[in-house]
Every structure is written in structure tokens, then in C-alpha cells.
Design a protein that fits this description.
mainly alpha, 48 residues, 0% strand
């Protein structure tokens, strides 16, 4: 079963990036925001 596509808002992306850089795992953040861990890593990799 495929997941419904979901985008993160700019504000949410900033929050995810801050939390990821503070040490939270991509998997934990992905579960919370209903996106894939790869998406979390991609968002955090973008320059801010």
C-alpha cells in the first residue's frame, strides 16, 4: 500500500532541520511528520 504524498511547509522543514541537527534521528522525525526518512535527510541537506 502506498503512502499518500505529503509535503512539509517551510516552517515545518526548518523545525525538522533544527531537530535533526540537534541529534534526533531521521526515522523518528519521519514517523512524526508522516514522511520518509529519505525525505527528512533531503530536507536537512538543503542549504539554509
Amino acid at each position: 500500500m502506498r503512502r499518500e504524498r505529503k509535503k512539509l511547509t517551510i516552517e515545518t522543514s526548518v523545525e525538522v532541520t533544527r531537530r535533526f541537527r540537534a541529534g534526533e534521528t531521521a526515522a523518528a522525525l519521519a514517523d512524526e511528520y508522516k514522511v520518509s526518512p529519505d525525505h527528512v535527510r533531503r530536507v536537512c541537506k538543503k542549504p539554509t
